Amino acid sequence: MPPAVPGLLSAPRITTLCASLLVAVGSGTNYVRASHPTLAAYSPQLAARLNISHTQLNIVGLAANVGVYSSGPFWGRIVDARGPRIPLAFSFVFLFLGYTGIRHFYDAGVPPDSALSSLSMGLLIACSFMTGAGGNAGFTGAVNSTAKSFPDRARATTTGIVLSGFGLSAFFFSTLAHILFPGNTSLFLLLLACGTALTTVLGFFFVRAIPLAAEESEHTAVGTVAAEAEATIFHHINDSHTPLLDEEPPADVTEEYVSEARGIELSPARSQSAVRPISHSRSRSRNKHDAIEGPNIYGRALWLDPDFWLLFVNLSLLSGTGIMYINNVGSMSQALFAKGNPAYDEVEASRSQATQVSMISIMNFFGRILIGLISDSVKNRFGLPRSYSLVLVSTLFFFSQLLAAQITDVTDLWKASLLVGLSYGTIFGLFPTVCIEFFGLSHFSENWGFLSLSPLAGGNLFSIAFGRNLDAHEPGESTAAAARAVAHQCLEGRSCYVATLGLTGTACFLAILLSALAAWRERRKLIAAVAARPRVVWEDLEN
């Protein structure tokens, strides 16, 4: 007799969830260089100790980003085929060696009148790359195991919990270091090396996919095969052969129609007779969206699927907006602080910047959990695909940019940071589960790895636009303002960057339209799935 499948809230599933959350907390320290404060917490000190320029420092940070994004499809393919243990083992090695290497360079330093050698610079970049690739390896294994351990009705909520740990990672380590050894950069880097590696060790033993019951493991366009089969009205005519299912569904079939059709009984006259199925008038087609097994799109088919590019562009626009704001909220804060302030204080400006980063990180954490609860509720209670929640997420981002463009006082900037952090958390809490709905669970991690390449495009484009906008408003050396200007500090307040917010606001409005298109296409898939249902003919067993 096969062993019993653990229940939804059983110890094995909860253990996997908690262990995956712990791995995520240790994996997110380099997710996006400036969207979390980890690198910002030691990068100025690192630059000073090694006598490297801001450009070189940015290259070091970019290496971590490249490690995250470029390794996604690779780790995803391994996790889909072999499970989470291999990536978790690599995560331990990469995170420990990466942060230990950076600490070594920091402790060694260079003499004040010397420069870092090309070889040492290359090794430093390699260490930064390893921290990004290692963090993504652990995170991929954690999210994949969680997604496969919980049924569809709870998948967005549980993966949202794991994703929230990823979003809070850098804030957690930075705060812990500030409490234990404030101002000691060397010990902070040691904490990162040991703390992130330890979480992957625990994950190696406790993170695993827990099998689902057969009725919960099926993933179809309407949730289950039963929902599709019941999306019809049973009727009886005085004929010995009565089609149970019409040849074509009603023209106005909707998700509500599918869900409300459940449980319809045969008429009393019909139910008094014994019935049995005798034939199927059409065979069920097996294609990229199989009605029984759900979608299973990957590899070349993924890149040729228009839905992939629809989600890719949408995620690029939204995440690019978030990355641009988070990367540059410090500059925005300083510009607002310097506006009309002759007693510019770098310390006070830095405190305001730290407030914005902390606000973004905390709301990022809550946003990932919140969108999981909302999208699960939308699907389970109203029968709507999770892609409908994309419209909500895009709208949040749009209003965040409108709000940021209106703020002229640095004391009000936290409002925009709160909304951006919440919006940024919701996109990365929602898109992985939408990826599963569109392309299936079997190759989820590989597909998500490709889809998560999209922030590179939007993030770089909008960040470069912000930098050029800011540079165009820097005071000239001949101006009176330059006499009190901090190096490369724009003194015009909101005017320093508002044009870029107009660009990102437009991008978010386009994302709203693309989100609506994605939801419409998913609805069309549902209708097509209902139309393709089998036709069952019943025969009365009457004398």
From TrEMBL:
GO cellular component terms, A-Z: fungal-type vacuole membrane
Predominant location: membrane
Its membrane topology: Multi-pass membrane protein
Signal peptide location: 1-34
TM region(s), chain numbering: 88-106, 118-139, 160-181, 187-207, 308-326, 357-375, 387-407, 413-436, 448-466, 497-520
Localization, UniProt: Membrane
GO MF annotation terms: transmembrane transporter activity
SUPFAM superfamilies in the cross-refs: MFS general substrate transporter
Keywords: Membrane, Signal, Transmembrane, Transmembrane helix
Segments for region (Disordered): 268-289
Name of the protein in its database record: Major facilitator superfamily domain-containing protein
